[in-house]
Amino acid sequence: MAENNSKVIITCAITGSIHTPSMSPYLPITPEQIAEQAIDAATAGAAMLHLHARDPITGQPTPDPEIFRQFVPRIRESTDAIIALTTGGSATMSLDERLQAPRELKPEMCSLNMGTMNFGIFPLAQKDRDWKHEWEKSFLESSRRGMFRNTFEDIERIILEMSENGTRFEFECYDIGHLYTLAYFLERSLVKPPLFIQSVVGILGGVGSDPECLYHMRSTADRLFRNDYQWSVLAAGRNQMRLGTMAALMGGHVRVGLEDNLWLEKGQLAPDNASQVTKLRRILSELGLETATPTEARQLLGIPVRR
């Protein structure tokens, strides 16, 4: 069983590829907005920054490494936070597209989704909105008939290509079977501990957001990986703070950010990513838990200390 941690790593996912510009005026779109919100989130206490890119005109998710280059170096220069680039991109991108920016920018960490799944964000298209861009509604609706592809071959390719650069992984597990897939790659020595496992709950098509699901994922990871992993929880939508707090009390780490949840509390949109980090830090402090610095997070995750 993984030991409980004395320090909680806060990851902040800045913009993602799920929410669209019409859902919140505070969702960062341009490289400047992404950089500013990432730097502010790090200042607020996020030890890790999970980054996607968007077309600065339309707000559509993009894999273009040229756009990543417009904000990643600035964030690196301005913070000591661990930078984790997505290899998931969005379900509409090919694997080659998803790997472009991580391959070129060689981050300390990148995400790695551990299985092909139905990733249902189409219910967001059914709400009454004033859509700013033509692509938004059809993009959301496409998840009804599509799938998020991450085959065994895809996963192995990502591991082999990114490991050449010394990149470590944020293993995103949306269901119990994804943990067993990760155990398979560990048994083959394609991945090395300490593993950073991100249990993702509340996505339509993945495991639910019930507390029992969280316990099940934690106990399964304990059985499969024992002391070889660090555990974090990403709870989508309104469950973000509730299940994030629960995860921290169970000895885990927590991810917040506008990629996963646009709200600060019921009826109030989060004005930025830093506000969610600040709220989580306050909750953790009141529970007697400390947040990890980027240096402490690197030590827990087996990442060389940054010079």
UniProtKB/TrEMBL annotation:
<dbReference type="GO" id="GO:0046872">
    <property type="term" value="F:metal ion binding"/>
</dbReference>
<dbReference type="GO" id="GO:0043720">
    <property type="term" value="F:3-keto-5-aminohexanoate cleavage activity"/>
</dbReference>
<dbReference type="InterPro" id="IPR013785">
    <property type="entry name" value="Aldolase_TIM"/>
</dbReference>
<protein>
    <submittedName>
        <fullName>3-keto-5-aminohexanoate cleavage protein</fullName>
    </submittedName>
</protein>
<dbReference type="Pfam" id="PF05853">
    <property type="entry name" value="BKACE"/>
</dbReference>
<keyword id="KW-0479">Metal-binding</keyword>
<dbReference type="InterPro" id="IPR008567">
    <property type="entry name" value="BKACE"/>
</dbReference>
<keyword id="KW-0808">Transferase</keyword>
<keyword id="KW-0862">Zinc</keyword>
